[in-house]
């Protein structure tokens, strides 16, 4: 008992229509890194939200250091020494590290002794080599540093158990390395860590033990030493995984899109594209790798006409489309899978039908003159859903009720049905489980083999290396290098993503 | 201790229950207010029901009050579907009334009734549409917040009405009251129930409700509106001209409010005066939401609110309960309705704290 930092017995949690956690047993030893591995919808998030007091289990018990506890709110969790670090940081950009640490601190009186807090932050930072100064403003910090501020916040509040929800999703491979060192130091400092990830490689690198969840149940808890990546993948999805998608040899055709010296601004008025140039040919997948926020999303929006270019030219099949209305570009055969499905791609409150017809509602047989033909639309959607195997509760149900994977399938179906000449996909597998990810990648390859030019913007390097034919690396709004996956080493790409390639070439 | 958990889906049962609870809660809060007037609320409510449904005549009065609510709420529904928060039906109603009064007061006196009424109805539609066009254009091209622009324009509309009523349009033989002269018969909407004030406007309202239902459910325009309301980015991507559709929808919404103004002066009061509009424009917002933005359901909800108004006048006359009580009840209903959004989207359970 004494050896357990946290122990959960028979945790069960129902949501309407779903058994999210089904009698889950989980234990975390003191000073270990224990990974929760599972596809989306396997119940990882529900389980950690129960540990953090966001949800309350319908059945089951939680013990902290052998003592039975009730965690009813994140504040309770904090008092029990449980600190959760969410994937999206809970930090206020314009405040300093110190101010963020104080924020929400309930034990603090009316007056805050900043000097004491600052000293304590420095102590923590030095102990774990965080290299964080209490007076830096959050917006001045890199993503990796912000993540460390989140950890400082939790340690400051006395967390002994840290729960990290997919912490590496936002980091470059190099930043991830630094992050793993920090985890190791936290561990040797006596902290117990629950780590959530679906990247098998890093799970194998960092974990002591791994608990695999599938469909709300524990498949098994294993010691890292006794398993391989392949074993874990099989446990996770219940069957053998295709690590090799059987990519066909490249049959590159004519140039479909060519971009010349493109410049543009983001929503905050910062110039995020500073002269992007590349071309994509029919029959190839051109990948763009980069750390989030280096202009990738703006690039996709400018090509599709949703954002204005301030300079430069875009040609699709030798016709200039720079700053044309989105509809004209779409009618040229350009399809778009945006990074945020619910913000641009889909209308969450409308049904699968209304979402499927978004691009063709204006045409026969979906409409006739000013009148919609909803029975025609329903038939059209039914066929779409069947071909792409989209699971919907009802065809009339709002799409916000679909799982992430099914939303993405619906979007893919809509965008690919009309055989685009250019398909722009931005983070198309972000947040999807292995099954859906595989499906999306297969479909992208299918589009390529069918002769489409595919522009794949992704933060997942493994994905790019697996399916792209060429990879352009974007850093601070410029393509700093174009490489072929079979000729390059992942570390080299990682360095370019972090800007060091550029720095070196400028120095020489 | 209370716990809130997000619901995945909202059941039909809940969708029906929530408005009923809201109305009941509104009545309970109203009862407290009535108690302050030292009157038994049960008796007051009984009088309201009798005042609204007690006889054939009182029921026709209920319909009289329901008529402008139907037209107004149906117009609002179209705007709300688009996520355009039109708070300005009050002002659009007034401008519609002013426009149509112009023809009633200064048009050729011996114009055939049908022609005069047609002109007045068109003028009312145009007046409301013009008043709605201002916030629509501001929103469509400069992203001006429509809640503020429509609300403020209500005051402008009211002051324009006051200008005409204290100034050029005041009836010279009206003993100085801010009223216009009474409309000639050719400018009065015909009654549809004899010996009552229930007029043709009710038919306009019902027709409008079905037209708007058709627009929403069957037309491309209706589809565009729901896409814009649900996600303007997706609408732009699909080539929907967001600005143009905002303007068209608001023109229709305002036009219906303006027509309600025409119906009120031509069908009920038969003259123009300052208080032609006892907050119908705001009550209609409550009606639209209680109806879940369904125009045909709005007909029935309007009748319910018409009953509340008719009954309210009844208790004011017979029991000296101020009419303000009715506003209290209506506001309380909206309040509870908004608050019950939590009920709709979260499951609430009681849990005991274990030691």
Topology:
The complex is a heterodimer of chains A (508) and B (355).
Chain A lengths: L3 E12 L2 E12 L3 E6 L5 H8 L7 E6 L2 E3 L4 H6 L2 E4 L11 H6 L11 H14 L15 H14 L4 E5 L7 H16 L3 E6 L2 H7 L2 E6 L2 E7 L5 H9 L17 E11 L5 E11 L3 E5 L6 H8 L5 E8 L2 E2 L5 H6 L2 E4 L3 H5 L6 H5 L10 E2 L2 E2 L1 H14 L16 H13 L5 E5 L7 H16 L3 E6 L2 H7 L2 E6 L2 E6 L6 H8 L2 H8 L1
Parallel strand pairs in A: 3-8, 3-9, 6-7, 7-8, 13-20, 13-21, 16-19, 19-20
Antiparallel strand pairs in A: 1-2, 1-4, 4-5, 9-10, 11-12, 11-14, 14-15, 17-18, 21-22
Helix pairs in contact in A: 14-15
Chain B lengths: L1 E5 L5 H25 L4 H13 L2 H26 L7 H18 L6 H30 L3 H21 L34 H18 L1 H11 L1 H6 L4 H28 L10 H11 L4 H25 L4 H16 L1 H5 E5 L5
Antiparallel strand pairs in B: 1-2
Walk me through what this model shows:
The complex is a heterodimer of chains A (508) and B (355). In chain A, 33% of the residues lie in helices and 27% in strands. Chain A has two domains: 234 residues, 3-Layer(aba) Sandwich (Rossmann fold); 253 residues, Rossmann fold (3-Layer(aba) Sandwich), CATH 3.40.50. Chain A contains 18 helices and 22 strands. The relative contact order of chain A is 0.10. Chain B has a domain of 225 residues. Chain B has 14 helices and two strands; from the N terminus they run βααααααααααααααβ. A two-stranded antiparallel ribbon of chain B has the order 1-2. Classes of the chains: A alpha/beta (508), B mainly alpha (355).
Total strands of chain B: the figure is 2
Query: How would you classify the helix and strand content of chain A by structural class?
Result: alpha/beta
Could you describe the largest sheet of chain B, including whether it forms a barrel?
2 strands, antiparallel
Q: State the distance separating the first and last CA atoms of chain A.
A: 60 Å
Spatial order of the strands in the main sheet of chain A?
6-7-8-3-9-10
Shape of chain B, please? Answer: globular
CATH topology of the largest domain in chain A: Rossmann fold
State the strand order across the main sheet of chain B. 1-2
Query: What is the typical, i.e. mean, pLDDT of chain B?
Result: 89
Strand and helix order of chain B: EHHHHHHHHHHHHHHE
Q: Give the radius of gyration of chain B.
A: 22 Å
Q: How many E strands of chain A?
A: 22
- Main interface by residue count: A-B, 39 and 25 residues
Helical stretch count of chain A?
18
Low-pLDDT segments, ≥5 res of chain A: 502-508
Annotated CATH architecture of the largest domain in chain A: 3-Layer(aba) Sandwich
Mean pLDDT of chain A: 86
